[in-house]
Amino acid sequence: MIENVLHPRIIENKDWATILFLVSFATIALTKSIFENRFSDFINLIFSDKYTKVYRDSIHLKSGFTISLFFVQIISMAFFIQLTMSHFGYASKTDWIQFIQITTFLVLFILSKFLIEKIIATSFNMDEFVDQFNLQKVAYRNYIGLFLLPINAIIFYNDSISGNILLLITGFLLIINILTYIVSIKNYQNLIFSKLFYFILYLCALEIAPYYFMYYWFTKGIA
């Protein structure tokens, strides 16, 4: 007699991710429609420095254009982190609770870092430089988030993506971030050299140390 054993079929819920992808793409489309000329300059950021020269005033840091694309950046980065962790067995790519945790951590990390930067900038009389420096960093990272979003969608709905591809994308993101710092330093070299000591202090305390501690905490946490 053949005994039939029934196993429960686990269906992963991807609806929440689909909604977030649609909302993110809709945000991009709406931003492009409202800020057509600015978006056109922004999309050519990798080929031209026109955008960073035209929109260098610190008031643009809190504009609707920057905030809407910052939202896309957060969603995009959170998805990529979760997908990478999922591939290496540290998370599930369909777990919306883990996505909320990653997103919350990213937002708190960025906002707390920004607040500390403002306090230090005010103390060292570097407000103008730090605001412009942050605006340029946000612009490049929003740009990365914009193009990373469709890649996330492809990886999320494809279960056969190689881990080498994820590592390649991670390496590319690191290179882009390093190039962003180089470009920013080049653009503001006169101001930086006039406050070189404070800039080195700022760079070590707020641009290197936080990421080092994140790396140390993460590697020790999963060891």
Structure description:
With 223 residues, the chain is mostly helical. The chain is 78% helix and 0% strand. The chain is built from nine helices and no strands. Helix 4 packs across helix 6 (127-156). The longest helix has 30 residues, at 127-156. The radius of gyration is 20 Å and the shape is globular. The protein starts with 14 loop residues before the first helix and ends with a helix.
Oligomer classification: single chain
- What does the largest sheet look like? none
Q: Which secondary-structure class do the elements indicate?
A: mainly alpha
Low-confidence segments: 5-11
Overall shape: it is globular
Using the CA coordinates, give the radius of gyration.
Answer: 20 Å
Instruction: Give, in order, the helices and strands.
Output: HHHHHHHHH
- Average residue pLDDT: 80
Number of H/I helices: 9
Brief write-up:
The chain is built from nine helices and no strands. The chain is mainly alpha-helical and 223 residues long.
Q: SSE layout and pairings?
A:
Blueprint lengths: L14 H20 L1 H8 L6 H5 L9 H24 L8 H28 L3 H30 L6 H25 L1 H6 L1 H27 L1
Helix pairs in contact: 1-2, 1-4, 4-5, 4-6, 5-6, 6-7
